[in-house]
Amino acid sequence: MKKYLLSILTLITPILIFSQEAEKGLDEKINDAFMPIAVWWEGFILTTVPIGEYNIPFVVLLLVGGATFFTIYFRFPAITKFKTAINTVRGKYVDIEKHGVDKLYNNDEALAIEDIKDTIRDESAHGEVSHFQALATAVSGTVGLGNIAGVAVAIGLGGPGATFWMIICGLIGMSTKFVECTLGVKYRDVGEDGTIYGGPMYYLSKGLKEVGFAKIGKVLGIIFAILCVGASFGGGNAFQSNQAAVQISSMLQLEGGSNGVIIGIILAVLVGIVIIGGIKRIASITEKVVPFMAGIYIVASLIIIFANFSDIGLAFKLIIEGAFTPMAGLGGLVGVLIVGFQRAAFSNEAGAGSAAIAHSAVKTKYPASEGVVALLEPFIDTVVICTMTALVIIFFNINGTDVQSVFNYSAAHGSSVLLNETGLPINGVDLTSMAFDSVIPHFSYVLTVAIVLFAFSTMISWSYYGLQSWKYLFGKGKVADLVYKILFLLFVVIGAAATLDAVIKFSDAMILALVFPNMIGLFFLFPKVRDEMKRYIGAITAKKEAIEDGAVDVTEHM
Q1: Does any domain span residue 13?
Q2: Where are the transmembrane segments (predicted)?
Q3: How many CB atoms are located within 10 Å of the residue 52 CB?
Q4: The CATH number of the domain where 518 resides is what?
């Protein structure tokens, strides 16, 4: 009864937002409702710890410390496991992942099959999607407006030096992603119909139970699921639809407060068509959309980079010097570091655990096989795409564009803006759009299409993350599914109508909040990941030896 009551109350809340204070415009009404919650929640999640003369958000310390520890403990997997990750995505080891190395090569040690009730990690069912589909789904959840608008905001607040710390965060974040996604596959569940249920809520509850902390694991699993539902409505939904609506309105030069709602309704219909089909349909869409949209964006970025080839050295000089000698008024080196890490964390979500939900659905007998695939995600998202965006914006400023005039441009065009500490209006999408337009005339129209695709793919991926968490909380019935999907689509509309100031506060804080329960689980369970990695590497070695000896024709098992 309590579950249904909670569902009904949650369903009614967005409706009440629309009905309040009818004399105000709809955009202002929604923003007024969001702002008090967003401000309080952001302040709570970004609680600072005094270190010397600086106040550093504890969540940043947790992310940096955890990622650094995993990087050292697993011997820099971003470098040592990169080739293995590429080969796994290419399907080079699909035979041993499908059949198990013991069956192919009579190696009992490498797989150690166990028929464990309520799990499928060593049973005959191996998941729902391929490595590439799982990676595409997870990448689509992270490659989004954070790569376009977020990078611009980071540079606006921290200067070019923030880019350096974003790259560092991406590199060490690859280790965190490797750990959480390996655990996601290891502790996943399977329904009677073969549907996969996985993610941090499962490895928190089941994994911590294994190591003797059942009650703590159960509580952390519930906390994560609640926060993930909120994050799916915020950063994975409202923020995306908000920026898509801003860009569409700017391109079409639309006026009037109802435009955001109209655009939001259109987006909601398109998202709804996809999410009804579950992870298989989501994966089939993302594996096509992600390469297409990323390809367009990367090609355009490369055009601008080569057009400014003579300035590449200067750009990296500004990035490196700015990382250690930041521009005045931002609180020094630590201030720039915090901006870079916070923006990178919002972009690639390493440590938040969200991507582990998508990766859990992969077809494999070896959890570590998906762990190594997952470490490619922060590399693609932050090291490659965010760096390209940063270079485009830096070239834009090198060529004489005054940052102040960029901010004024955004305000003059009526865009929803975020104010920095000095009161200057910042809009990341407008800033990035102007940077591209300066070299590729009218590219802003193409960028609008890319933004909509980024937003669309991120929303459908996060709908899956949120739905899995919702099911963990309220059961796996059809009623619970329907209630969540209706709520999710309502937040598409709400996000498109709200102003960026409220949405970005809510979005950042909800996604960063996932870090707390997730990282606790990772610190307890990382030895399990080491064991799984040994198993997978052992299976790969057994295959290589069999091929070299000519003992088995492995192609018949592919």
Answers
A1: no
A2: 54-74, 219-239, 259-277, 289-309, 315-339, 372-398, 443-465, 486-504, 510-526
A3: 7
A4: 1.20.1740.10
